[in-house]
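Entry 14: structure prediction run for ADP-ribosylation factor-like protein 15. Input pasted below.
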Amino acid sequence: THICIFFFFSSWQCFRALCCKGPPPPRPEYDLVCIGLTGSGKTSLLSQLCSESAENIVSTTGFSIKAVPFQNAILNVKELGGAENIRKYWSRYYQGSQGVIFVLDSASSEDDLETARDELHSALQHPQLCTLPFLILANHQDKPAARSIEEV
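Run finished. Output tokens:
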């Protein structure tokens, strides 16, 4: 009878250890905004981070939201389209952001790089973004015309 009691007690401990822990604690979530000119690579970046196929990527018109899972957190990234007629509405989507990803095409023309610089400066000075962390990503470094970080 002692063996049966020991077996029952051991089985109960294993059962509790496996089944009664409850769900894992929720990962913290952070809301980010991702901005940059059309063709800078915002959609490709987010697709890569979400392990989605990079085929048939189309420029975002308006905005899209993707949840990017990491081991210790989830980033809810609001990607805003970068066309000239959409950029004037970016600020309407800034509220609630906890960080900014600014993507620029490091192989773009001088004019586009200047436009990207102006948009970046505008975002850095915006009251809802000026205190937030910024990640500035110089994308398309694999292209022959890509500028170095110093040049950008």
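Notes: Residues 29-139 form a domain with the Rossmann fold fold (CATH 3.40.50.300). Will compare against the previous run tomorrow.
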